[in-house]
Specification:
This protein has helices at residues 3-15, 27-32, 39-48, 60-69, 92-101, 115-118, 130-135, 149-159, 178-187, 201-206, 213-222, 236-243, 266-275, 284-299, and strands at residues 17-22, 35-37, 53-57, 74-76, 106-110, 123-125, 143-146, 164-165, 193-195, 209-210, 227-231, 248-251. The chain is an alpha/beta fold. The chain has 3 domains: 3-83 and 261-281, Rossmann fold (3-Layer(aba) Sandwich), CATH 3.40.50.10800; 86-170, NadA-like (Rossmann fold, 3-Layer(aba) Sandwich); 176-251, 3-Layer(aba) Sandwich (Rossmann fold). The strands form 3 sheets. The chain has a 4-stranded parallel beta sheet with strand order 2-1-3-4, with helices on both faces. Strand 3 (53-57), helix 4 (60-69) and strand 4 form a beta-alpha-beta unit. Helix 1 runs parallel beside helix 13 and helix 3 (39-48) packs parallel to helix 4 (60-69). The protein is globular, with a radius of gyration of 19 Å. The site of iron/sulfur cluster (SF4) has 12 residues, from loops.
Length: 301
C-alpha cells in the first residue's frame, strides 16, 4: 500500500470513519473504500453503517442522501464542487410552480436531485427500483417524474403508463446513440449490450438490458457469457474487470466519463479526513421534508 493510502487508513481508524464510493469513481478510490455500490445500495449502507463519520466519494446529491438518512453521522464530501448536472436541471422554484399547476399529481423524484427538490416531492426512486416505485402508485393518479426524462421515458414504455416528464437528462448517458450500439455489436458479435436507463428510449430499445450500475454488475457476475458491451460511465469497468477476471468488458463509448464522479483523488480523501471537510450541513426543516420521500421509497416492499 502506498504512503497516502496508509495515511488515509490511519485517519479513518482515528476518526471512526467509513468510506463509501460510487461505482463510477476512480479505481484507486474504489479500492480503498469500505463499500462500493450504486445509489440505492449506498443510501441503504449510509443508514445501516452507524458510523461517526461517513466520507462519501461520489457527487453531492449522494452525500446529501447519506446525511438525510444518517443525520447523527458527520458526512463529508471530499470535493465540494462534485455535483450532478442532471440534478441541477430541476430548479426547486420551478418544481414548486409545477406542483401548484398539478395539485392531483404524485411527484416522483429520481434520487439524482437536490435536497431542496426532494423536499417538494412525494416519493423518490433510483435506477434500481424505479419500476417498483412507479408500480406502487395507484393507476388513477397522474404522475410527474423528474428530473430525468430518459429514465422516466423508459419506465413509461416498460410499464405502459403515461407520466409527465421533466426535461432533464444526464449529459453522459444522453449522448449514446443507436449507431454506437450497432458499431459495437458489429465489432463484438454476440456480446450483450448493457446500458443504463438514463440512456434515451431508442437506445434502451436497441440494447439487450437497461440496468442500474449494481444491476450491470449482477448481470455480468451471474451470466455464463464471456464478453459484454458496457453502455454506462467508464468507472464501472474497474469493478467489472476486478470481479470477473475471466470475462471481457468492452466500453460502448470510451467518451462516457462523468467528470464530477472523477473529481475526488486520494489526496482529496486524505485532506477531507484530516480537516473534516466538507461537512454536509442541511437546515433541519429542509432535512425533515427531504428525507420523507426517501423513506417512502425505502418502505415500498
Ligand atoms: P446508479 O444508481 O445506477 O448507480 O446510477 C447513478 C448515476 O448517477 C448514474 O448516472
Ligand atoms: Fe449525474 Fe450523469 Fe454524472 Fe450520474 S453520470 S452523476 S447522472 S452527470
Amino acid at each position: 500500500m502506498d504512503d497516502i493510502s496508509k495515511r488515509i487508513q490511519e485517519l479513518k481508524r482515528e476518526r471512526h470513519a467509513v468510506i463509501l464510493a460510487h461505482n463510477y469513481v476512480a479505481p484507486e478510490i474504489q479500492d480503498l473504500a469500505d463499500f462500493t455500490g450504486d445509489s440505492l445500495e449506498l443510501s441503504i449502507k449510509a443508514e445501516s453503517v452507524h458510523a461517526e463519520v461517513i466520507v462519501f466519494c461520489g457527487v453531492r446529491f449522494m452525500a446529501e442522501t447519506a446525511k438525510l438518512l444518517s443525520p447523527q453521522s458527520t458526512v463529508l464530501l471530499p470535493k465540494s464542487d462534485a455535483g450532478c448536472p442532471m440534478a441541477d436541471m430541476a430548479d426547486p422554484d420551478e418544481v414548486a410552480a409545477c406542483r401548484r399547476k398539478n395539485p392531483d399529481a404524485v411527484f416522483v423524484a429520481y434520487v439524482n436531485s437536490t435536497a431542496r427538490v426532494k423536499a417538494l416531492v412525494d416519493i423518490c426512486c433510483t435506477s434500481g427500483n424505479a419500476e417498483k416505485i412507479i408500480r406502487s402508485i395507484p393507476q388513477d393518479r397522474p404522475i410527474v417524474f423528474l428530473p430525468d426524462r430518459n429514465l422516466g421515458g423508459n419506465m413509461m414504455k416498460k410499464l405502459g403508463r403515461k407520466m409527465e416528464l421533466w426535461p432533464g437528462c444526464c449529459p453522459i448517458h444522453d449522448q449514446v446513440t443507436v449507431e454506437m450500439i450497432q458499431r459495437a455489436r458489429a465489432a463484438a458479435p454476440g456480446a450483450p449490450v448493457l446500458v443504463h436507463p438514463e440512456c434515451r428510449v431508442e437506445v434502451v430499445d436497441a440494447a439487450d438490458e437497461a440496468l442500474s450500475t449494481a444491476g450491470i454488475l449482477r448481470f455480468c457476475r451471474e451470466s455464463s457469457g464471456k464478453r459484454f458491451i458496457i453502455g454506462t460511465e467508464q468507472g464501472i469497468l474497474h469493478r467489472l474487470r476486478k470481479e470477473n477476471p475471466g470475462k471481457e468488458f468492452l466500453p460502448l463509448e470510451p467518451a462516457m466519463v462523468c467528470c464530477d464522479m472523477k473529481k475526488v483523488t486520494l489526496n482529496d480523501l486524505y485532506v477531507s479526513l484530516r480537516d473534516m471537510t466538507e461537512k454536509i450541513e442541511l437546515d433541519p426543516a429542509l432535512a425533515e421534508a427531504a428525507v420523507r420521500p426517501i423513506r417512502r421509497m425505502l418502505d415500498v416492499k
